[in-house]
Amino acid sequence: MTSRASPLGKTASSPQTRQHLRTSSMHTADRKFLIVTADDFGLHAAVNAAVSEATDSGILTAASLMVAAPAAAEAISIARQLPRLRVGLHLVLTDGWPVLSQREIPDLVGQDGRFGDRMVLDSFRYCASARMRSQLRAEIRAQFEAFARSGLQLDHVNTHKHFHLHPGVLNEILRIGHDFGMSALRVPDEPLWFSRSQGLAQGLTAPLLRPWLGLVRRQLRRRGLACNDRVFGMACSGDLNEARLLAILGRLPQGVTEIYLHPAIRTRDPLTPSMHNYRHADELAALLSPRVRAAVAASNAICGGYADLAMVTAA
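Below the sequence we write its predicted structure tokens.
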């Protein structure tokens, strides 16, 4: 595997850099570090075009790649032409395409070879079935291997629909990710003021997750992995427009903040059936907005990807 050159002078997969990332994440409490990520990179050519435009002309600093999605090869080619873009692995274990065939993971996918969208049911099935856990382990490793073959530097890891909140899934990612130099993992911990502003359901769910998220964060830091202090994008997934982005940036706290979106150029049909109500073009417009760019500048935040956290202590 080849690595894209890092401005830190080390690849993020080296033990020295993993230690530096852990140390730097502990020293960002007195300053602002902002990561703006596009999820579902590789899902569709419309997503890839948006990532390219938002990196060149907007505030996007990172993207999370679906390695088995229909437009993944194009996404990898685009990423190689965008040295400032930090690219991570967007593990897909629900509502999407696996790397392995239906014959290899028959208990995880349907006859069409795709993961279904039954996260609650699958969560219990993973706990009950050693056979399913074995197949899950094989698929997670296959996705890490596919990312490694891309030759891109692995900036971070996260999961489609935050499936790594499942303890069994998280443990497999941590164990397998170590073999591939994983140095950072997203913690889906959204501030209560924002989740509550988006509706009653979000405002009730967020506090219930908080104790588990704290345990996840401590587990990551014990392993020397970098993580965010907070994330924005959960309560308004697919509809993080300019107004919402400006509200977040106007209250941007110190520490490491990740904002994730699902930008795409406008298309006639939904990118997937589960995204029928997503406003991808509005999210792209928000990333390109002059007002948003000005708000980022006014926040005095350091911007980049997880690999760039090491620059915080080097400055």
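Residues 15-86+154-162+186-314 form a domain with the TIM Barrel fold (CATH 3.20.20.370).
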